[in-house]
Amino acid sequence: MNEVPQLLGHEAQELQRAFDVFNQVSQALTLAYHGLQGRVESLTAELAVANGELRRQYEAKEALSERLSLLLNSLPAGVMVLDSAACVSAANPAACAMFGREIIGKNWPALAPTRLLATDTPGEWQVHSRRLAIVESPLDSAGGRILLIHDVTAAHDLKAELERNQRLVAMGEMAASLAHQLRTPLATALLYSANLGREDLADAARIRFAGKTTAQLQRLERLIQEVLLFARGESIGRETIRAEQLLSDAAQTVQPLFLEKSVAFRVSCQAGQVIVTGSRKALAGALVNLLENALQACAAGGQVILAATTCGRQLRIGVCDTGSGISPEVQERVFEPFFTTRGQGTGLGLAIALGVVRAHRGTIKVSSISGQGSEFVILLPIEAAAERAP
Fold first, then answer.
1. Contact 151, 95 (CB under 8 A)
2. Cα atoms in the 13 Å half-sphere on the side-chain side of 381
3. Contact residues for 96 (Cβ-Cβ < 8 A; gap 6+)
4. Four-residue CA torsion sign, 195, 197, 201, 206
5. Which of 256, 277, 293, 348 makes the best surface tag, with the fewest CB within 10 Å?
6. Which residues lie below 8 Å from residue 48, measured CB to CB, with a gap of 6+?
7. CA separation for the pair 201, 199 (Å, rounded)
8. Do 81 and 90 touch, CB atoms closer than 8 A?
9. Domain Histidine kinase, which positions (predicted)?
């Protein structure tokens, strides 16, 4: 009989313990719920802040996009976007005005040759009456590109006018000196031609006077040609010229002059197949001017070397002589128009050579040591003919 109350008491204790555990778990769940509810409220607030920031960023980007769109639409320069297939995916109004709205979706490398005409200036193109400069830049890693197209018509016209005015000013400043240079051979030719009319003149003397008259008239003709060439500037073409052709043209022209003066002349070309672009006649003429200048600096028995080598991406052409050299003071002025140290010189040969080389995007320099001769060096860009429309 005593076992029943003991069992009931044991079950009551177990039930009490279970109830206590349930209360503990319930309290833990209540605390976890409150904690979770607080976390949800915190995340909701953070999400609201994040959404607000994203909204502000979106609005800022929309405003920036609108401003960029307005800027592109108002730009006087043309802007074209090419995709990875080189097709025009977008173009601003200026570009559409230059090439037409139908360029959208067209392949630019195929379209460019039909719209762009190459000019004498590398990187500039003619479109109807406009002169355009086109700059290409990569746009993204997918291969897209962006073309910036500038209308340089007015700048080109101003540059040409400025160069013409500078030449005219230089000619005006030296008009008196040039008149004197023209008058001297003219007076000499008149004197010789007057002797030709003498009835008592022997045939041998008549032939001699005729030859001297012709020589003075040829000198007059050359003076006038050099003045005209300097006044109008040299028109630079887009011929492809091998270095060996260029040196050969110049050498054939001056070879008789060197033989007449008994000055040794040697040509060394180690860049025979190198290609430059421009005017073959103008470049050969510039070399002839340098070679004649070197010949005049040499006495009989001297030597002049015309040599061509490559220097990086440039063609180096050197004219070296064994003359008396050029003083530092004269070197500073040697390329000035009408500056000469010779009584019968025009002072235009080296100035014309400098203009031709600069027009071909090259440089020309002189180095000299007194008593040891001089060297004029021309540097021209190689493979300019490989340039293509963008």
1. no
2. 13
3. 103
4. positive
5. 256
6. none
7. 6
8. yes
9. 177-384
Q: In the block, which residue shows the tokens 């002839």?
A: 288
Burial tier of 134 (Cβ tally within 10 Å: 0-12, 13-18, 19+): middle
Contact 346, 223 (CB under 8 A): yes
Judge whether 134 and 77 are in contact, CB under 8 Å: no
Q: Is the pLDDT of residue 276 over 80?
A: yes
Give the position of tokens 């995709």. 83
DSSP-assigned letter for residue 298: P
Q: Give the pLDDT mean for 104-132.
A: 82
CA angle 19, 24, 28 (to 5 degrees): 145
Local structure of 214: helix, strand or coil: helix
**Closest CA relative to residue 290, chosen from 366, 188, 214:** 366
Please answer whether residues 80 and 95 qualify as being in contact, where contact means their C-beta atoms are separated by less than 8 angstroms: yes
Under 8 Å between Cβ of 359 and 286: no
- Say how many Å lie between the first and final Cα of the chain, rounded: 112
How far apart CA 286 and CA 234 sit, in angstroms, is: 11
- pLDDT, position 214: 83
Backbone phi, then psi, for 166, in 5-degree steps?
-65, -40
Beta-carbon contacts of 291 under 8 Å, excluding residues fewer than 6 positions away, are 250, 254, 265, 304, 306, 319
Q: What is the pLDDT of residue 41?
A: 83
Helix (H) or strand (E) holding 222: helix 203-232
- In the three-class reduction of DSSP (H, G, I as helix; E, B as strand; rest coil), residue 42 is classed as helix
Cα separation, 189 vs 387, whole angstroms: 50
pLDDT attached to residue 137: 84
- What is 242-274 written as a DSSP string? EHHHHHHHHHHHHHHHHHHHT-EEEEEES-TT-
Q: Using CA atoms, how far apart are residues 68 and 353, in angstroms rounded to an integer?
A: 48
pLDDT digits (tens, 9 = 90+) for 178-229: 565 566 667 777 777 877 777 777 878 888 888 888 877 876 776 676 666 6
Please choose, from the candidates 308, 158, 195, the residue with its C-alpha nearest in 3D space to the C-alpha of residue 246. 308
